[in-house]
Amino acid sequence: MTASPLAFDVCNNYAAAHGFENVDVLLERIIYGEDRFNALVIIDELTEELEKVLISRFQFPVEILTLERYRDENGKRFYRFEPFLSDVTTPVVEGKPGLTPIDPSELDTIVVPAREDGFQEVFLAEDRWYSIRIHSSMLPKIRFIAAYRVAPESAITHFAPVASIEQWKDTSKYVVNFTRPADRLGPLRLVHDGQVKAPQGPRYTSKARLIEAKSLDDVF
């Protein structure tokens, strides 16, 4: 019996809503399934040094969830954390209706924001992009990379197939190496007063959605 019946009920409801027979089956799929987590670290404070160690020491993906705990004067508990893969959801402009979210199983493309000098000197000239923060569980899924060129371009203009993803130097970030020089795409421009905000960091989508898109509103 779990120490928190409420927490168990939440997990049980999630399992039922997503087609799992019970919580045991859900856990088995998480641990042994094709897209399983190999390790999940839950910690109240994550230093850069610890993150580097977790990435460099293990030969399997390590997901890290920072869970901050608080208690008010009445003893009520509060928890603060960033939901897993929160950057997969569409960054909707306040007051605008959201777009249909992408099924996580379809994600195969990472979109990175790039300033013009870095885009020309690295993305195009070196056929790679580095110092990217990527969810470890996304590493085996990523097959393509696309560049969102920040203002004044404000558009996705190129994408490339991915040859490999490696740890970037002695950091907790990664370098994405391309199979070949990037191809032109679009441009898929940021829509003024549209539903999607300009990416401030890496985001995930699918190549199919990227190819079919007419603007940035259609990508995520």
Describe this structure as you would to a colleague.
The protein has 220 residues and is an alpha+beta fold. The protein has 2 domains: 5-80, no CATH class; 91-218, Roll (ph1033 like fold), CATH 3.10.590. Helices cover 22% and strands 29% of the residues. It is built from 5 helices and 11 strands; from the N terminus they run H-H-E-H-E-E-E-E-H-E-E-E-E-E-E-H. Strands 5, 6, 7, 8, 9, 10 and 11 form a 7-stranded mixed sheet that branches. It has a two-stranded parallel ribbon with strand order 1-2. Strands 3-4 form a two-stranded antiparallel sheet. Strand 7 (144-149) and strand 8 (155-167) form a beta hairpin. The longest helix is centred in the N-terminal third of the chain and has 13 residues, at 5-17. The protein is globular and about 55 Å long. The model has no long low-confidence stretch (mean pLDDT 81).
